[in-house]
Amino acid sequence: MMTDELLERGLGDIADQYDVPAHAIDDILDQLRPAVAVEDEAVAPAHRRWPPARKTWLLSSAAAVLVLVVVAFAAGGGGGSQSGGPKVRADFGGKGVTGTGATQNGPGQSVVTQPQTALGRLTAGAPSAAAPVPARAQTQAGQQKALGGAPTSTVPGDSLTKIVQTGELALQVDKIKVADAVTKLTAYASGAGGLVADSQTTEGGSDPSASVTLRVPNRSFGTVLGQARALGKVQSEQTKTADVTAQYVDLQARIHALKETRATYLRILSHASGIGDILSVQQQIDDTQTQIEQLQGQLKVLTDQTTYATLTVSIDQKPKVAPAAVVHHESGFSKAVHRSVSRFVHGVEAIIGAIGPIVLVLLLLAFGWLFAKVGYRIVRRQLV
Amino acid sequence: VDDLEAWLDEAYPRAYRTACLVLRSPADAEDAVQEAFLRVWRFRDAVPGGDGRRAWLYRVVVNACLSRVRSEKVWRARTGDEALQRIPAPSDPQRDAEDAALAACLGDALARLPEHLRVPVVLRYYSGLPEKDIAIAIQRRPGTVKSRLAEARRRLSEDPALAEWAGLEVAR
User: Which pLDDT belongs to residue B150?
Assistant: First the structure.
């Protein structure tokens, strides 16, 4: 039976037979000294914070100039558009005035305008005026009708600001058919560089309808909305604008940080030699990669939403107005008068209706008499 | 570096001999332990303090040894017992003969143990690590360590040469 004591003694005996190499520790230290020296050199400049090196000066100056240019560009662009007033090209039809819609400033928000004309209609493709925008704007059709305007919105080409625009529009068409309205909406979306994401049409019957979801570039959202609105009578309208710049930047930062982490793990992996270490680091790399791909997926969706606005248009056919049945609530005398008149009319109608056959009979008799008379004369001449 | 030098002086001999028992090759053991200490230096910020430091060191040493065993097949390549061939001449004939016999039997029996049993035995009965530290070193749960040690003892007891020697020893 192997006891713990025997095992310890036996293993000790075996181990004692291995002489510890005298130079081993020195070898390890010799290998470490260059690494320590390199680390010392690397650490030393880090403590030299002032005065900075020439390279640091150059980088700092370049960064400062870049920031100034960006700030000046941003400030100049925003001021110009505001001082210039609303740049709206409107077809006023010779009358009417324009007015800018309610505006509100918000940090990091895009510039959207809601010009409202009394009788005007924004021409297709006309750029909207630059004005600050509320992050979330809702417009009701009734308000639009009261104002008589057709709001439009555009997002400027500010690559730093990410806006998600969505809209819902309910239309009732009268002069054209539902299918034609869907065709026109498709054409509007295609013309603006967008597409039809979803389309459902119910034709036939007495109540044709359709629902079309358009994805159009953000800059063309207002234009397409105006075109869609012109197809029929607006029953309801709702537009929403959401600023997702912070979310976008956060996603980018997290992806960047995770990529840095992955790079670090890869460096560690290149130095690992044990199977356990390699598997452990590889697991970390896999986890990090999964997180990166998830965030990249979210970023892709967000980018798609900020590039293309979504407009859902519901279309109904205006129903044919059927003559309403007149309900009379009359007295007995009045009823008698109406009945009398009605019977008189019916009598006249009956007489007129009877005249036709009578005339026909008279005509037949006239023709018969004429034939008889002519026949009699012919027969009499032959007899004479 | 000074701390590492002090630690080397204290821990290197036992770590080296542990590696020798696992690898049964002084040259490979020296390389493995050197690699382990260099790795310790590289990740010195992650080294725990106190008692955990020893378990952490043996974890790195065992990893370095097993890495060599698995990647270079040194264990399988070295069928001859290089260590036993280097046994110094005995000074006390009776005692040394007994020790040499035990070492020879145990060495052969140890060589027949698979790695997952041999490493816990070496760490427990030579390096003197408690089971919880062995668990840290081989990255397994303490229950697994306990069962592996029991299995290793059972196999060693069933080893014919070792059983014969142990029986004689007990009889004496």
Answer: 92
